[in-house]
Amino acid sequence: MDTASRSYDLTQQGRTTATISVSIQLQPTPTNNLEANSLSKRRGGILDTMARCLLRQANLPDELWAEGVAYSAYVSNRVPTSIHGAMSPKEKLTGATPMINNLRIFGCHAYAWVARCHRRKLESTSTPCIYLGPKRGGHAHRLWNPSTR
Question: Where in the chain are the domains?
Answer without folding.
Answer: 2-144
